[in-house]
Amino acid sequence: MSTSLERAQLWLSDSYDAETRNAVQGLIDNNPTELDDSFYRDLEFGTGGMRGIMGVGTNRLNKYTLGAATQGLSNYLNEQFPNKEKSVAIAFDVRHNSDTFAKMVADVLTANGIKVYLFESFRPTPELSFTVRHLGCDAGIVLTASHNPPVYNGYKVYWNDGAQIVPPHDKAIITEVESVKVDEINFEGNDELITIIGKEIDEAFINAAVENGSFTKEGKEDVKVVFTSIHGTAVAITPKAFEQAGFTQVHQVAEQAIPSGDFPTVKSPNPEEPEALTMAVALANEIDADIVIGTDPDADRVGVAARNNEGNMVLLNGNQMNTVLSYYLLEKWQEAGKLTGKEFIGSTIVTSDIFYDIASKFGVDCKVGLTGFKWIADMIRTFGGQEKFIGGGEESFGFMVGDFIRDKDSVTTALLVSEIAAVEKAKGSTLYNKLVDIYIALGKAYQEDLISIVKPGKEGAELIANMMVDFRANPPKELAGSPVVRVKDFQSSIEKDLVSGEEKSIDIPKSNVLIFYTEDGSKVACRPSGTEPKIKYYFSVNGPLASKEEYKSVQDILLAKIDQLKVDFSK
User: Fold this and answer.
1) pLDDT band of 455, cuts 50, 70, 90
2) What pLDDT sits at residue 43?
3) Judging by beta carbons within 10 Å of its beta carbon (0-12, 13-18, 19+), is residue 285 exposed, middle or buried?
4) CA 373 from chain center: how many Å?
5) Using CA atoms, how far apart are residues 29 and 27, in angstroms rounded to an integer?
6) Biggest CA-to-CA distance, the chain
7) Crossing angle (nearest 10°) for helices 431-442 and 354-362
8) Residue 531's pLDDT is what?
9) Residues 6+ positions from 478 with CB-CB distance below 8 Å
10) Could you give the C-alpha distances from 30 to 21, 27, 65, 280, 458, in angstroms and in order?
11) Are 150 and 69 in contact (CB under 8 A)?
């Protein structure tokens, strides 16, 4: 295996431009640590595609790593569709270099004879998913690093159904990419094959979002919403969608409505983090708003805060948000007489098991896949014509309403969650109380949390790998005082009952994930991130709940159990 230095020296050849050669030489001469991290491996496609720090090197996002990815994709498209005109839609976010990277990617595609539909300016990722199917494209690409820090960028590839790539296409494309030599990347684009798109697609997407995310006009003029795009792409679309859906009291956080790849008002532009919504909550308290909605830079994730029974704004976690959304959708389908037993909601292996309870209550199926919306989209593809997809999501603040797109969608989700808040307000209740009502209807309350342990660089990747090896060799015997009774290992595809010793196979694609279940119903999932240098621990606990009066005390017990689990997994 070649060393990082040897791999870097290959980038000093005339195949690379002078700016790149100078930057690489600078690393060789002055920064061996950065050199090693920039060249010790190639960027890989994870659950969110290819994502990394911008800069020179095989382990960085740059003209050549993106060029090789696009040349490999072009080769694959030309192999898969040899006798037709091929087209690819391209969108990009507000990050530094995203627009430049998007044009460069378009040039490689057109240089290979592939037509490109390129957005005129930044757009939400869900709009790209919608556009692929709307225009009948063979693939789609979005340049984004989601909620990562400003030094990152990324590259997501979508197939012709508007979903991110899954087997066999992902591995086949990676094989093509890995075989591309730098001299084989064709950067000489043909602008005649590029069509700039914008307003007409926006209108079609907004129409579809309103149609799928609206069931009633009740209370929409009375509910007061604070919305923030956290400097991201949602500002281009979501305010217009709110207006078209009939919401008249939507207040934007003005400072965060300014698009910026620096995300200057937050530590992290991630609505999963309460800090990211600090300004929005402050505005909500100032104007006495009912809910707060915030989206990440590429507008696929959405965070929601609602007033609790003490009148304080609290951030719902992703499982809680999706609980309310899924339950409401199923209620509306039931009211319309559309539930036949051949419908399903979608979830993921690290998400709360409450969605099994919700599906059972309404007589529908709950299908569970690996982390990432591409697997929920794969369910829609696999069961199309047999079962109807209603909605679904994962704990990382993502949800998808219906199948008019095939990725998490903050735009439609924002409309739907605002409608639920409006309906509840019209009844003299709140979105928060809707969640508690659902727990009571199910007979038990759930509580979830997540911790991430960051281990950057080459050394960090090795540490994370060793942590997973140790979990498999020495699994915990008890968690928060309750015996571990069941283990699911998605790498070996084996589920083991530790009481009976019975083993059974797991019919889900292999992944480096472990899930431990305890005697008292707690669940802990351990998973290295596919897009960031961290290992994640997902906690879910539950306890019986019969009335609203009990909820606070039950929640306190569950939160204490979560705290103990955090201690167990922070050692």
Assistant:
1) confident
2) 82
3) middle
4) 7
5) 5
6) 72
7) 80
8) 63
9) 484, 518
10) 14, 5, 23, 44, 19
11) no
Structure tokens, 384: 């199309």
pLDDT of residue 2: 73
Reply yes or no on whether the pLDDT at 169 is more than 70.
yes
Q: Which of 146, 347, 352, 522 is catalytic?
A: 146
**So what's the pLDDT on residue 97?**
98
What number of other Cβ atoms are within 10 A of residue 390's Cβ? Answer: 23
Angle between helices 18-30 and 32-39 (to 10 degrees): 130
**In the predicted model, what is the mean pLDDT of the chain?**
95
> Which residues have CB under 8 Å from 500's CB, separation 6+?
none
- 485-517 burial, b at 16+ Cβ within 10 Å, e below that, comes to bbbbbbeeeebbebeeeeeeebebeebbbbbbb
Q: How far apart are CA 504 and CA 18, in angstroms?
A: 57
DSSP-derived secondary structure letter, 264: T
143: exposed, middle or buried (Cβ count in 10 Å: 0-12, 13-18, 19+): buried
Asked whether 248 and 283 are in contact (CB, 8 A), the reply is no
Each residue of 474-509: pLDDT tens digit? Answer: 899 999 999 999 999 999 999 999 999 999 999 999
Note whether 516 and 475 are within 8 A (CB): yes
Amino acid found at 280:
A
pLDDT band of residue 568 (cuts 50, 70, 90) is: confident
Q: What is the pTM of this model?
A: 0.94
pLDDT for the residue numbered 52: 92
Q: Is the bond preceding 168 in cis, omega lying within 30 degrees of 0? A: yes
Tokens 């281990």 label which residue?
A: 455
129 flagged as catalytic? no
The answer to whether 529 and 535 are in contact (CB under 8 A) is yes
Q: What percent of the chain has pLDDT over 70?
A: 98
| 526 Cβ contact partners less than 8 Å away, ≥ 6 residues apart | 468, 471, 513, 514, 515, 516, 535, 536, 537, 569
Domains of the chain plus CATH, in order, are: 41-197 (3.40.120.10), 204-442 (3.40.120.10), 445-568 (3.30.310)
User: At a CB cut-off of 8 Å and minimum separation 6, what does 328 contact?
Assistant: 416, 420, 434
Condensed to tens digits (0 to 9), the pLDDT of residues 4-43 reads 999 999 999 999 999 999 999 999 999 999 999 999 988 8
Confidence of residue 542 (pLDDT cuts 50, 70, 90): very high
Which residue blocks in 81-124 are alpha helix, DSSP H? Answer: 98-111
